[in-house]
């Protein structure tokens, strides 16, 4: 395990482990922010599973982890708080006469074994010039973040992609691939810059249900369906010791770094609520 610390490693330092998808910038900023509040910290972001193992073995105080819904019981022995979300967004050209889409429609566009095969824009309810145009389906290349596998799990039920789905690479200009004449739908881990000529679609779980945009509030509430939490896990009895670190992780500064890492931080309201609950639980522990 490779530790990064703001100084020489000492017994009093808090040890933070977990997801390697948070990135080096988040690690550096966390150490700098901890130094400003005189919080001795060491970090090792080697992955969620190694981080959980380190927490279980007592080699870490807090683990920042992401596990799919079918593995959430892996954290049952620990207290957890959400810090943010991995999400999947559906992008289309800004000229596309479409503002929302359903999970079954996305499955029909991208999935090989979907119940309803969707090949043309008219099958999404689009009329006019776009209706007879074929849909070009774009996904990030495998191994470049969680977006593709998260999409396959949540929208395709784990099934394979259609053979004609096109993969784009991190260095590709996705906005260019989504120009109007491409008539494409792309899956991505985050919206593009506001200045780019693309549109984010609202997503509904099923036809006839409300569609939601991937806003922080809709991610926090679970209304937006294409999401996976990033959680801070720790031993309940250790809360008084780790609370200063959790305050830092729920700060506006950390939220900005989480967003910059390509994830979505909790909304301000949710961060404040989580902090109030933590302080209440700390008081209960100290009163025993």
Mean pLDDT over all positions:
92
Distance between the termini: 36 Å
Q: How many beta-strand segments?
A: 14
Please identify the structural class as seen in this structure: alpha/beta
The main sheet orders its strands as 1-3-2-4-13-5-14
Spatial shape: elongated
If you consult CATH, what is the topology of the largest domain? D-Maltodextrin-Binding Protein, domain 2
Oligomer: single chain
Biggest β-sheet, characterized?
7 strands, mixed
What keyword list fits this structure?
single chain, 21% strand, 288 residues, alpha/beta, five-stranded mixed beta sheet, D-Maltodextrin-Binding Protein, domain 2
What's the arrangement of secondary structure elements?
Elements: E1 4-5, E2 14-18, H1 23-36, E3 41-44, H2 48-56, E4 62-65, E5 79-87, E6 89-93, E7 100-102, H3 103-110, E8 136-140, H4 147-155, E9 166-168, H5 174-177, E10 184-188, E11 198-200, E12 202-204, H6 216-221, E13 227-234, H7 239-249, H8 252-260, E14 264-265, H9 268-287
Helix pairs in contact: 1-8, 7-9
Please describe what this structure looks like.
With about 290 residues, this protein is α/β, with parallel strands linked by helices. It contains nine helices and 14 strands. The chain has helices at about 25-35, 50-55, 105-110, 145-155, 175, 215-220, 240-250, 250-260, 270-285, and strands at about 5, 15-20, 40-45, 60-65, 80-85, 90-95, 100, 135-140, 165-170, 185-190, 200, 200-205, 225-235, 265. The strands form three sheets. Strands 1-3-2-4-13-5-14 form a seven-stranded mixed beta sheet, with helices on both faces. A five-stranded mixed beta sheet has the order 9-8-10-6-11. Strands 7-12 form a two-stranded parallel sheet.
């Amino acid at each position: 395990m490779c530790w990064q610390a703001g100084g020489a490693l000492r017994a009093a330092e808090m040890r933070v482990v977990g997801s390697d998808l948070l990135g080096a910038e988040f690690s550096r900023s966390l150490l700098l922010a901890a130094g400003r509040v005189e919080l001795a910290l060491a970090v090792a972001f080697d992955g969620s599973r190694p981080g959980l193992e380190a927490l279980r073995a007592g080699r870490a105080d807090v683990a920042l982890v992401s596990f799919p819904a079918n593995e959430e019981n892996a954290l049952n022995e620990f207290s957890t708080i959400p810090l943010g979300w991995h999400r999947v967004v559906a992008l289309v050209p800004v000229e596309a006469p479409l503002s929302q889409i359903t999970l079954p429609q996305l499955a029909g566009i991208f999935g090989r074994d979907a119940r309803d095969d969707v090949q043309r824009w008219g099958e999404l309810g689009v009329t006019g010039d776009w209706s007879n145009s074929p849909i070009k389906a774009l996904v990030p290349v495998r191994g470049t973040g969680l977006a593709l596998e998260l999409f396959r799990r949540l929208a395709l039920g784990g099934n394979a992609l259609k053979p004609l789905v096109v993969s784009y690479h991190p260095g590709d200009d996705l906005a260019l691939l989504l120009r109007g004449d491409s008539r494409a739908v792309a899956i991505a881990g985050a919206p593009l810059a506001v200045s780019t000529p693309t549109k984010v679609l609202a997503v509904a779980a099923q036809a006839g249900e409300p569609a939601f945009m991937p806003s922080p509030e809709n991610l926090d509430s679970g209304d937006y369906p294409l999401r996976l939490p990033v959680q801070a896990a720790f031993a309940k009895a250790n809360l008084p010791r780790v609370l200063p670190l959790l305050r830092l992780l729920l700060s506006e500064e950390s939220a900005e770094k989480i967003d910059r890492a390509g994830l979505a931080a909790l909304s301000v309201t949710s961060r404040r609520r989580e902090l109030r609950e933590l302080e209440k639980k700390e008081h209960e522990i100290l009163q025993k």
